Amino acid sequence: MIEVKNFTKQYGDNTVVKDISFVAKDGAITGFIGHNGAGKSTTIKAITGVIKPTKGTILINGIDIAKDAKKAKMQFGYVSDSPDHFLRLTGLEYLNFMADIYDAPVEGRAAFIEDYAKRFGIYDSLGNTILSYSHGMRQKLMIMGALIHSPSVWILDEPLTGLDPQSAFELKQMMREHVEKGNSVFFSTHVLEVAEKLCDEICIIKHGELLYHGTLDDLKATHKSQASLENIFLELTETKDSEVTV
């Protein structure tokens, strides 16, 4: 579970995120949507401990990341929006490196790597350097590295970008399987159709302010009965079609 309480981030006189609060519950996939510059990346960086809040508290499974960063970070797996890391390592070296960082049991690694690598279709490429991988292959490897220690909380920043249709389907299945075990998934996306089909709850952010947090059904209840998430999003953010990536 992720609890964000009255989070504010300022850089000088510029307030990037203003006093937002929400909970990414256990047993639920929570989507985080908003335009570029809305404050999504800043919020995710604060949740993962990359930056410190100006104000507010962020708890991961009840652990304050500002007070016990190491313990809090052991609770989650984080996939950033860029997969271009450790390019000179082989895929297998990278996965074992990540497992070592998180003290993942050695005896369970091989089974995890084989299972996920085969589901993602990169098993035969694990002996090659990451530099030789396509963008999509790197994305798959980063996802595996984030999940190799079996964290209960998944934090995914645009995780479907660059994935082929089969791998995107597999990841969405994995996300659903994860929350069905009572865990939580928090992910950002520009693809509103995916958010509508996949998410149990959504958070909509605009100019650093949280416009909505709750279920899609509750959101639709306040709008036209047949309105799609895309239409509601455009209405809430008062944005032209050409400014939204879907």
From TrEMBL:
Keywords: ATP-binding, Nucleotide-binding, Transport. It comes from the Bacteria. Residues 2-232 form the ABC transporter domain. The keyword RNA-binding does not apply. SMART domains: AAA (SM00382). GO terms for molecular function: ATP binding; ATP hydrolysis activity. PANTHER family: ABC TRANSPORTER ATP-BINDING PROTEIN ALBC-RELATED. This is ABC transporter ATP-binding protein. It comes from Ruminococcus difficilis.
